[in-house]
Amino acid sequence: xxxxxxxxxxxxxxxxxxxxxxxxxxxxxxxxxxxxxxxxxxxxxxxxxxxxxxxxxxxxxxxxxxxxxxxxxxxxxxxxxxxxxxxxxxxxxxxxxxxxxxxxxxxxxxxxxxxxxxxxxxxxxxxxxxxxxxxxxxxxxxxxxxxxxxxxxxxxxxxxxxxxxxxxxxxxxxxxxxxxxxxxxxxxxxxxxxxxxxxxxxxxxxxxxxxxxxxxxxxxxxxxxxxxxxxxxxxxxxxxxxxxxxxxxxxxxxxxxxxxxxxxxxxxxxxxxxxxxxxxxxxxxxxxxxxx
Length: 292
Ligand SMILES: C[S@@+](CC[C@H](N)C(=O)[O-])C[C@H]1O[C@@H](n2cnc3c(N)ncnc32)[C@H](O)[C@@H]1O
Known about the structure:
The protein is of the alpha/beta class and 292 residues long. It has 2 domains: 4-53, no CATH class; 82-290, 3-Layer(aba) Sandwich (Rossmann fold), CATH 3.40.50. Helices cover 44% and strands 19% of the residues. The protein has helices spanning 4-21, 27-37, 41-52, 57-61, 85-102, 109-112, 116-119, 133-141, 154-164, 182-188, 212-217, 231-243, 259-268; strands spanning 63-66, 69-72, 123-127, 146-151, 170-173, 192-197, 244-254, 271-278, 283-290. The radius of gyration is 21 Å and the shape is globular. The structure holds S-adenosylmethionine. S-adenosylmethionine (SAM) binds at residues 78, 80, 84, 128-131, 133-134, 151-153, 156, 175-176, 198-200, 221-222, 232. One of its GO terms (molecular function) is peptide chain release factor N(5)-glutamine methyltransferase activity.
């Protein structure tokens, strides 16, 4: 008769074998995660069958890793990508710089990072927030910023509420900035410190070239940036300067190929832009600062 640990090892090996046969590259890692996620043997069988049928891992687990934390999500919502940590990092850097500027000349970035009163004066909008990965991660780093996360997809908004509201952020549903109700709009218009936007930026014709996990299982509304991929960015950039405080920044994720156009749109939108690139994350973003 097998001991408990032998039974467990047999089960792990069996799951790894099934996943490997289905073409999963990281079968050992995925087996461990699926076994952790499943509440029973039947549930595990169900998860394995779905994974073998090509469903992405993260909605099956119920979470995706982002900035070292778990973002809760399910089917029908965009899975946050590691490259988007570039936007988060730059937004976080900006919060710290604002705190340094507003505190005494002798203060260092390390010391002001915990200045909660000053942090509370920093308003951030995460537009096209999906599950709220960027918004939640920024709130974890800076718990007192005023965070507004908006998306037009009710499924994404539900997940964002679960991820962002417990950390003190506000989540709204609607088309881009229209999701922000009039009262809040009047309070923050022209005084926002940071806008982050990982909006859809895949040209419509290129969605068919994406990996099946994205192409078949993520809603096209989360990927489709219109004929040139820039339709949503164009609208966000066109409006951003009216929301930003003088010196405030807009951070937009884009592709290396599209970056020159994203940059030109920012310039035309009254922002001083530059391209950011992180090779280790394979990430490209454009930052635009409102002058004045
Ligand atoms: C590429 S996903 C990014 C989600 C999230 N920022 C992230 O990085 O995980 C783009 C998101 O934009 C949302 N979206 C698309 N069109 C929108 C619109 N007109 N107004 C608000 N959100 C929109 C989609 O629902 C989707 O959640």
